[in-house]
Amino acid sequence: MAVYPERDPKGVELSLTDEVREKQRLPPKQNTLAGYLFRVPWWGLIIIGIGIFVYISIAANEEYSRAFDQLQEGIVITTQVTVFSYLGGLTVGLLLAVARSSYPKPKKGLIPGLFSILHLLAYNVATFFVEVMRGLPILVLLVIAAYIVTPAFKEFMLERFEIEITFRATSVETCIIALSMAYGAFLSEIFRAGIQSIEKGQIEAAKSIGMNNFQVMRFIVLPQAVRRVLPPLGNDFIAMIKDSSLVAYIGVRDLTQVSNVYAGSNFRFVETYLTVAVIYLTLTLIGSLLVRLLENHLKTESR
Q1: How far apart are the C-alpha atoms of 32 and 148, rounded to whole Å?
Q2: Is 13 helix (H, G, I), strand (E, B) or coil?
Q3: DSSP states of 50-97 as a string?
Q4: 3-state class of 197 per DSSP?
Q5: Interatomic CA distance for residues 303 and 175, integer angstroms
Q6: Helices 62-100 and 172-196, axial angle in degrees (round to 10)
């Protein structure tokens, strides 16, 4: 039996080899039942199912409900520490990344020479800060900020300028400042990688049309760099939600500290800590969803 070559829609004859290659180029059928089953995010459905079961259990069980009511104060503090610390970390990290994005070089002339000296100073100060912050555990930084730095700063401001700092050393404000400094060092490396990934041709083209260094960084480099480093920034936001529990060590009444006090008072450890686990998981899932929505929004704008 003879095998005749087929024709494509344009009427061109296809050999057997070309026919196989053409079929390989065709998109797979996605509208079948198997296609739908493979596209379903089963992990998300499992998490949603477990969450619904746990929330129903909390609502139906008096002990779980009482534990959840007691933990609501801690949820507010945890959310405040997470959001404000991350915003502070983004600001600190961006400033450090700009200072460390390029290595300082000597320049001729009075004004360029002064700017190169300032750049050298900023580069070394930023590098020293990043290396120290990244080399210390976050818990140690919180303890140093609460029991050493903040009391010394309050005493200095009162004796030197007669300005009284009202917040306590072991307060939410101290934790926000310490976490902002710690995460600023980590985020600076992410921002620096994004800034250095921008092609030099774009920077040279922007300068050739008369843009100065600030305009190049503001309109050319940073918008592209932020889009490129958004996934790792989102990962650090999720990490911030979990690391905020460290503030319980210095007595701040966040979710972890409130749960420790409540469980220690009535010995309901199972109900209390299971409720805490569900709350933290819910916060991280909400944070992941917000990050994905932001990524999709930026992808849509860049098209």
Answers
A1: 64
A2: strand
A3: HHHHHHHHHHH-HHHHHHHHHHHHHHHHHHHHHHHHHHHHHHHHHHHH
A4: coil
A5: 40
A6: 50
* Tens of pLDDT, residues 204-234: 898 889 898 889 988 999 989 988 898 899 9
Alpha carbons 292 and 62: distance in angstroms, whole number: 36
Q: Domain 50-302, what architecture? A: Orthogonal Bundle (1.10)
Q: Where are the domains of the chain?
A: 50-302
Dihedral (CA of 126, 131, 134, 135) sign? negative
> pLDDT category, 303, cuts 50, 70, 90?
low
Q: Within 13 Å of residue 192, how many CA atoms lie on the same side as its CB?
A: 21
The Cα 47–Cα 40 span in angstroms is: 13
- Of 85-99, 131-145, 248-262, 264-278, the poorest mean pLDDT is in 264-278
C-alpha–C-alpha distance, residues 15 and 106, integer Å? 66
Residue the block writes with tokens 């000597």: 106
Which segments within the chain are labelled E, that is strand?
Answer: 6-7, 13-14
Within 13 Å, how many C-alpha atoms sit on residue 158's CB side?
Answer: 9
The whole-number pLDDT of residue 53 equals: 77
| DSSP letter string, 231-298 | HHHHHHHHHHHHHGGGGGGGT--SHHHHHHHHHHHH--HHHHHHHHHHHHHHHHHHHHHHHHHHHHHH
CA distance 91 to 244: 18
Of the pLDDT bands very low, low, confident and very high (cuts 50, 70, 90), residue 14 is very low
The stretch 177-193 carries a mean pLDDT of 94
**3 state DSSP class of 116:** helix
